[in-house]
């Protein structure tokens, strides 16, 4: 019997402990190794536009092609898919290997990957047999040559064996007082290697959260009872002493100040250790946007003061960046934007960004295109690592249907992270504007104090599948020229829920409501009133097309609004999704929304997932349109609608 079959069998040895070397090897989660390849063939979003696969294989010495057959007759559909994904032979079948030696090396590595996949599915009696050109892999000499016609046949046969469940479970040492069930270790439950490793990590995490950074598993006894198809697990854990943070040492900085980087970790010497604080510190450094990578390494022993030294390794990003972007809608026209920025202006991760945009191309006359430009400055860590100072100047010239608007606005303020999920901000702003709308021509000089609170526990900001985000906004404002004072209030919430374990179906909902109190509609500048309709709110309607209108049919905005949206985000493949949706909204000239005049739009969208967010195309129709409303709307952009 081949060696690997002997290791995985043992039906006549009930209660035999698995060898330590094998256990450690197979219980580690394995990652497939992708071979590097050249870029002679050009691809865009995975679609080959020119070139051939032969171009990519030009750097392979003695290329040898092969064809794989993977047979797992006892495996169900899900396990078969996992095995196929674990097989590098199967995944790289369209690419040759480097000679016979390369094929045998790939096959041996593949067998280990497949064994690990079986163990992850609690198949501890599985047998993996690989033959090349009809000969078992372990019977082939090291210098074997496959000189037959290509592709060389490779056969992978897998007998999965029964699925094991957990048997007796014992936690010993400093983990003796813990309940194994709290960590997923339940007699009769999942015995997959991943479940056991996850439980180990959670147990150690529990002890570390008590301020014990040296907590670790000191002994692991895993016994497979082949007669009963059960796995007995005994884990011994040493908690170690309670300790604080020692010295924080930073390496890898070049243009970013080293002391500033240490300061931004927020790890104060002597403060009790917390694994969550370590994670938050890493996220805080990454959020500075000056580092490509940040790695925290905890020392394996305490210093002379009984504290834990922390090492931080960083690699810096290029400080300067620029970009171009665009949006399109048949109701709003084409929009183009560009920006230039510096991530590390003075060495303390200060940001300077200059941007500009043009919109309404194809929708407005050339003399009525919309322009905006601005400059923004940010400085993190002004009153602690969780704080950020910001200031900016922005100028706008725009001609939406509701008004003509020119303004120059300056603002400065401070934001502060209460914790990883909660952020508050306050600023002082001064806005000079000239506006022509249904009430005539007016000049304003508005002083305001915008205040904002955000709670965000979404699992992803680009493409969330769970969690929710809540925003509360208040802006007291005073017009220095007219003496009018008013308060603008806005609240918004969005929630996301996966309806299946693979997040192929995600239900997304959004609700937004706003109100302006303290003065009449005509005293509120047109650009500060509420509007609804268009790609960012109620799709199917024109931009700002929902709500009260003047005698010419142009929107005048309102003192209140309400919007809601529901989407079902369906993943067709890993990169392509379909999104049916329904939007609704209303705008009122009173400070309370008018729910008797709600406009509803419905449609379907297409998503293409990229590393920088989904590419979005939506098509929608108004369900209760007025004669002035469009018959349909098409919108394109980057990112989910909300």
Automatic annotation (TrEMBL):
Keywords in alphabetical order = Membrane, Transmembrane, Transmembrane beta strand
The organism's place on the tree of life at top rank: Bacteria
Q: Which InterPro entries match?
A: Bac_surfAg_D15, D15-like
Mind telling me which Pfam families this protein's record contains? Omp85 (PF01103)
Q: Which residues form the Bacterial surface antigen (D15) domain?
A: 344-642
Q: Where in the cell is it found?
A: Membrane
Q: Where is the signal peptide?
A: none
A Gene Ontology term for the protein's cellular component: outer membrane
Q: PANTHER family from the entry? A: BACTERIAL SURFACE ANTIGEN (D15) DOMAIN-CONTAINING PROTEIN, SORTING AND ASSEMBLY MACHINERY SAMM50 PROTEIN FAMILY MEMBER
Q: What is this protein called?
A: Outer membrane protein assembly factor
Its source organism is Mesorhizobium erdmanii
């Amino acid at each position: 019997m081949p060696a690997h079959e002997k290791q995985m069998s043992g039906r006549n040895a009930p209660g035999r402990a698995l060898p330590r070397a094998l256990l450690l090897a197979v219980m580690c989660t394995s990652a497939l190794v992708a071979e590097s390849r050249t870029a002679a063939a050009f691809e865009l979003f995975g679609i080959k536009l020119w070139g051939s696969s032969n171009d990519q294989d030009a750097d392979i010495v003695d290329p040898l092609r092969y064809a794989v057959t993977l047979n797992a007759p006892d495996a169900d559909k899900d396990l078969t898919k996992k095995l196929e994904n674990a097989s590098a032979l199967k995944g790289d079948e369209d690419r040759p290997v480097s000679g016979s030696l390369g094929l045998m090396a790939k096959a041996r590595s593949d067998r280990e990957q497949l064994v690990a996949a079986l163990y992850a599915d609690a198949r501890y009696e599985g047998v993996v047999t690989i033959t090349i050109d009809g000969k078992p892999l372990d019977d082939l000499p090291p210098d074997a040559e496959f000189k037959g016609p290509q592709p060389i046949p490779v056969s992978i046969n897998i007998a999965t064996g029964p699925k094991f469940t957990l048997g007796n479970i014992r936690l010993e040492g400093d983990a003796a007082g813990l309940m194994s069930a709290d960590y997923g270790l339940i007699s009769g439950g999942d015995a997959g290697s991943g479940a056991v490793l996850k439980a180990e990590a959670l147990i150690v995490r529990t002890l570390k959260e008590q301020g014990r950074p040296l907590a670790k598993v000191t002994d692991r006894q895993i016994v497979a009872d082949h007669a009963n198809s059960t796995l007995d697990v005994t884990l011994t854990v040493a908690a170690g002493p309670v300790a604080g943070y020692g010295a924080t040492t930073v390496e890898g900085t070049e243009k970013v100040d080293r002391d500033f980087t240490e300061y931004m970790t927020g790890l104060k010497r002597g403060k009790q250790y917390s694994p969550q604080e370590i994670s938050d510190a890493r996220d805080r450094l990454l959020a500075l946007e000056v580092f490509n990578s940040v790695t925290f390494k905890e020392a394996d022993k305490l210093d002379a003061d009984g504290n834990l030294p922390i090492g931080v390794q960083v690699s810096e990003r290029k400080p300067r960046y620029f970009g171009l972007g665009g949006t399109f809608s048949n109701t709003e026209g084409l929009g183009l934007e560009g920006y230039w920025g510096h991530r590390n202006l003075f060495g303390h991760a200060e940001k300077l960004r200059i941007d500009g945009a043009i919109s309404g191309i194809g929708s407005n006359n050339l003399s009525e295109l919309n322009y905006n430009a601005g400059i923004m400055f940010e400085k993190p860590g002004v009153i602690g690592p969780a704080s950020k100072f910001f200031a900016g100047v922005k100028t706008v010239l725009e001609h939406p249907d509701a008004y003509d608007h020119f303004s120059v606005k300056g603002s400065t303020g401070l934001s502060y992270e209460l914790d990883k999920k909660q952020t508050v901000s306050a600023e002082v702003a001064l806005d000079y504007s000239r506006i022509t709308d249904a009430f005539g021509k007016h000049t304003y000089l508005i002083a305001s104090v915008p205040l904002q609170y955000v709670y965000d526990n979404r699992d992803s900001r680009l493409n969330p599948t769970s969690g929710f985000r809540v925003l509360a906004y208040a802006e007291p404002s005073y017009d220095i020229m007219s003496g009018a004072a008013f308060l603008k209030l806005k609240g918004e919430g969005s929630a996301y829920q996966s309806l299946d374990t693979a997040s192929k179906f995600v239900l997304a909902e959004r609700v937004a409501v706003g109100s302006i109190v303290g003065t009449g509609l005509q005293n509120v500048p047109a650009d500060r009133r509420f509007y609804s309709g268009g790609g960012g709110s109620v799709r199917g309607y024109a931009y700002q097309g929902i709500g009260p209108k003047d005698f010419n049919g142009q929107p005048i905005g309102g003192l209140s609004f309400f919007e809601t949206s529901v989407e079902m985000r369906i993943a067709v493949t890993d990169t392509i999704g379909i999104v049916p949706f329904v939007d609704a909204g209303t705008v009122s000239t009173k400070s309370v929304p008018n729910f008797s005049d709600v406009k509803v739009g419905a449609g379907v969208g297409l998503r293409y997932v990229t590393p920088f967010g989904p590419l979005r195309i939506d098509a929608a129709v108004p369900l209760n349109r007025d004669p002035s409303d469009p018959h349909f709307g098409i919108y394109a952009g980057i990112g989910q609608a909300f």
